[in-house]
Amino acid sequence: MSDTFQNIISNLVWGFRDSILGMFKAFKLDSEIPTEHSSRTVEPMTALAKRRAEKSKHKDTVKESSEPKVTQRIALCCAWNGGVCLMSIFIFNYCVLPIIFWVTEIVSARAGSSNTVWSWLSVLLSATFDALWILPLFVLSKIVNCFWFQDIADAAYLKTRGKPQLPSISRFIADMSFSLLLQALFLIQAMLIKLLPIWGIGHLISLVHICLLYALYAFEYKWFNMGLEVHTRLAHIETNWAYFCGFGLPLAVVTSLPSSNFQSGCIFSIIFPLVIISANEAVEPTEPFEFPLKLFAPVVSISNSIFHRSVSKRTRNVSSSSSRSSSTSSTPQKTRH
Asked: Among 77, 97, 133, 323, which is least packed, fewest CB within 10 Å?
């Protein structure tokens, strides 16, 4: 029992360390040579081959200089989520609302009325600001961040591991649809477990869910580029749950500090690109842990049933339409005499 507990603690520390130290490697990726260029063997070349190599090298340098670097992508993502989204929330809450409160207090004091005006005015202003600015900006940020996160992950993978193994379009759509559904159901499961009446137990198990979910978010980019399927990726998380729980713990703790979901989402979008780099640089354990933690099993069964029903319904529709077309084609047409 003591050995198992020590292994859990050591794997938690291992994952926590990889998550923190891997963030600092993001600033060194641009200086590294991609693996596809470094793996080539040096062979003697003729004068014509040297000139061709110099021309191709010049084209490669021009192309690399024109493309944005990993640090530039991360800086752009942080500037949008931190400088625009998060800063607008802070300016409204700590600059605009205090000024309006000060003006309202002066007007109420001169008019001799009570300060009940501010009680409904602050709620109205906050609701209007959230509906007209924060919510559309938050939705836009989610869409933009999806492309930026994928761009950062692909650039980091290309720098350190070479070209990714791209699947077919049908497999890509099926994999992404299943993964998004599974992650949404797992998040709902974490929220429901948090409502357990036992004090502390529900919050602790919910925190484990969030840590594993954040680790899955980060490692999924690398595993997908490696050609691993969804069930294989989930098996990695469940069989080495202590490591991945420690890996997602820093991001889970930092995003749980703000009271507002919008602020938590902005902080997540600022730190997550660095966590993607950490997952790309991490060397996760290859041997399975002593006992797996099958937390994804309920949502996997639900997702499988939903997908099986949708696929069977689609096949029934296709078969019925094909039978109709065959019956109409086999019906003899009347000819005029």
From this structure: 323
CA distances from 164 to 16, 153, 203, 223 (A): 27, 11, 38, 10
pLDDT tens per residue across span 7-52: 899 999 999 999 999 888 877 776 665 554 444 444 444 555 555 5
Residue pair 247/15 in contact by the 8 Å Cβ criterion: yes
Amino acid present at 194: K
How many Å apart are CA 85 and CA 265, to the nearest integer? 10
Is residue 153 in some structural domain?
yes
What does the block give as tokens for 179? Answer: 């993964």
Residues recorded for the chain: 337
Distance of alpha carbon 94 from alpha carbon 86, whole angstroms: 12
d(CA 304, CA 293): 19
Which residues fall within 8 angstroms of residue 190, CB to CB, at 6 or more apart? 206, 209, 210, 213
Domain count, the chain: 1
- Measured distance CA(266)–CA(70) in Å, rounded: 20
For the entire predicted model, the pTM comes to 0.78
Q: 120: burial class by Cβ within 10 Å (0-12, 13-18, 19+)?
A: exposed
Determine how many CB atoms are found less than 10 A away from the CB of residue 270: 20
Asked whether residue 88 is assigned to any structural domain, the reply reads yes
CB atoms within 10 A of CB 263: 18
pLDDT above 90 (res 248): yes
